[in-house]
Amino acid sequence: MKPGKLNWEDLKELIDENRGFQREEVVLHSGIGEDCAVINFGDYDCVISTDPITGAGKNIGKLAVNINCNDIASSGVEPIGIMVTILAPEGTTLEEIKALMQEIGEEAARLNIEVMGGHTEVTSAVNKMIVSCTIIGKGKAGTSVATSGAKVGDDIVVTKFMALEGTSIIVNDHEQKVQEFLTEAEIIEAKGFTDYLSVLEEGKLAGELGVNSMHDITEGGLLGALWEMAKASQVGFRVFEEKIPIKEVTKKICSSFNLDPLKLISSGSMLITMQQGERLVKALQQKGINAAVIGKITEGSGILVKEGVEQEVPPPQRDELFNL
């Protein structure tokens, strides 16, 4: 098999055939596009998610904390703590592990969450450092937002700019290559995108405004996230390429490496659906967060309108990052 997430058909089969015993306390179960599980504990819900970092070589501690917190943010609740598993290859020094944990601890402190535990080992089973985290959030019972809540007629809103994470990974891990076509200022700008990977603020605001659906845009990029949201909600969508916010340095990098920015890992951006999406856009912009309405939730299939031509969006394959 090639690197990357399993295709949706294989993943759905694995999920559907291996659910174990379904507990009544679990109010949001596993499914395509659902990154979180929700467990009811009376007046409050516990929201849990887990994700590894596998495609990056640098800033993996910072990335691991943010992508997991973003899953919780997409439910519109507050992250409380994180558990960290580190698998280090043979030859890793104690100083390298300490530096990684320091990065994780500093990012967790910045986001007001606690590192509650985990596991660390050196193993021949991996050839580079792997970090996998489980994040726990808390919200009032019945208030969490699901990926599967999108409704026909909803506006589709995205926050910040697409492929911030993918752009920063490429520049940090392949700096010598990008120096051939990027200026020093562009390289500094792209590296700085790691400071914009959290979607906690927009997730909290969107939850307060009563949106129908949220999904953080990660592996597979915007088109992958749209497809997953539509599949989970049993709806279609129609989005317009010219309305999708993408930084010029990202366009330049993707053009040079022949990558599609709409299929490139995009932590730092949230996909949201609701009625009167411009109301959310205005509220986000008042807090200094870029946002745009890029289309509508529809019946039928998912459509990308590109230069006036309609293209049906297929199920997501592996992320463009793995095509480098």
What does this structure look like?
- By secondary structure, this protein is of the alpha+beta class.
- The protein folds into two domains: 18-140, 60s Ribosomal Protein L30, Chain: A; 147-323, PurM-like C-terminal domain (Phosphoribosyl-aminoimidazole Synthetase, Chain A, domain 2), CATH 3.90.650.
- The protein contains ten helices and 13 strands.
- It has helices at residues 8-17, 60-73, 94-110, 164-173, 175-178, 184-191, 200-209, 221-233, 248-257, 277-286, and strands at residues 26-28, 37-41, 44-53, 78-88, 114-122, 130-140, 155-159, 213-216, 236-240, 270-274, 291-298, 302-306, 309-312.
- The strands form two sheets. The chain has a seven-stranded mixed β-sheet, with helices on both faces. The chain has a six-stranded mixed β-sheet with strand order 1-2-3-6-4-5.
- Strand 4 (78-88), helix 3 (94-110) and strand 5 (114-122) form a beta-alpha-beta unit.
- The protein is globular, with a radius of gyration of 19 Å.
- The model has no long low-confidence stretch (mean pLDDT 93).
Set down the secondary structure blueprint.
Elements (H helix, E strand, L loop, with lengths): L7 H10 L8 E3 L8 E5 L2 E10 L6 H14 L4 E11 L5 H17 L3 E9 L7 E11 L14 E5 L4 H10 L1 H4 L5 H8 L8 H10 L3 E4 L4 H13 L2 E5 L7 H10 L12 E5 L2 H10 L4 E8 L3 E5 L2 E4 L12
